[in-house]
């Protein structure tokens, strides 16, 4: 007779293999100098963060707890983020990217020039992404606003990655930090 205990390992194996579908909504407001960032997994909202940069500090305000967190990144943390992004960029499957923007300066000629420049920049970025991820669908909408001063760019990104790939990339990034610290200490000891 077969045991039901085999269902537990099967559940974890399926959990590691089935891709996590996540969406990121990023709203950048230039004149208010803030970023609103929302994370969704399988259409379930996980968190919303408001990020502001003042001087050399990054201030994060969460919507649920209404508290401010200030931090600055060390060299190890920056190196970890760089290696994590480098490890994840080939593993993440980008499904869809939408870029919507509302741009306006009081002068209509400058507004039209700025809108055209933003459209050209977004299309250039889309060409680069399409060369790297050919299955990604992309959409761009830029709305000029001639009567008020506004600069808002809203980006929707839909991606998927397996939990195994995510954990693997984090572990490899952590080991690369240890190796980098070890190499720096060896160089310092040779110079001494």
What would the keywords be for this entry?
eight-stranded mixed sheet, single chain, alpha+beta, 4 helices
Task: Provide a quick synopsis of the model.
Helices cover 41% and strands 38% of the residues.
Describe what this molecule looks like in 3D.
It is a single chain. The chain has helices at residues 7-17, 75-88, 108-132, 163-191; strands at 19-29, 34-41, 44-54, 57-62, 68-71, 93-104, 137-144, 150-162. With 192 residues, the protein is of the alpha+beta class. Helix 2 (75-88) packs across helix 4. The protein is globular. The model has no long low-confidence stretch (mean pLDDT 84).
Secondary-structure map with pairings?
Layout: H1 7-17, E1 19-29, E2 34-41, E3 44-54, E4 57-62, E5 68-71, H2 75-88, E6 93-104, H3 108-132, E7 137-144, E8 150-162, H4 163-191
Parallel strand pairs: 6-7
Antiparallel strand pairs: 1-2, 1-8, 2-3, 3-4, 4-5, 6-8
Helix pairs in contact: 2-4
Structural class designation: alpha+beta
Count of helices? 4
Query: Quick one: biggest sheet?
Result: 8 strands, mixed
Q: SSE order in H/E notation?
A: HEEEEEHEHEEH
């Amino acid at each position: 007779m077969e045991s039901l205990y085999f269902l537990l390992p099967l559940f974890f194996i399926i959990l590691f293999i089935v891709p996590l579908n996540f969406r990121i909504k990023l709203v950048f407001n230039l004149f208010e100098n803030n970023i609103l960032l929302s994370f969704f997994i399988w259409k379930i909202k996980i968190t919303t963060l408001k990020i502001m940069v003042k001087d050399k500090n990054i201030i994060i305000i969460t919507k649920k707890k209404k508290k401010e967190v200030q931090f600055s990144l060390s060299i190890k943390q920056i190196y970890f983020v760089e290696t994590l992004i480098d490890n994840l960029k080939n593993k993440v499957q980008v499904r869809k990217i939408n870029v919507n923007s509302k741009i306006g300066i009081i002068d209509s000629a400058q507004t039209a020039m700025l809108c055209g420049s933003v459209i050209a920049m977004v299309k250039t970025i889309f060409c680069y992404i399409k060369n790297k991820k050919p299955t990604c669908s992309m959409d761009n909408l830029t709305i000029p606003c001639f009567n008020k001063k506004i600069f808002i760019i809203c980006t929707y990104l839909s991606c998927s990655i397996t939990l195994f790939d995510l954990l693997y990339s984090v572990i490899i990034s952590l080991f690369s930090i240890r190796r980098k610290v070890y190499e720096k200490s060896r160089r310092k000891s040779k110079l001494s």
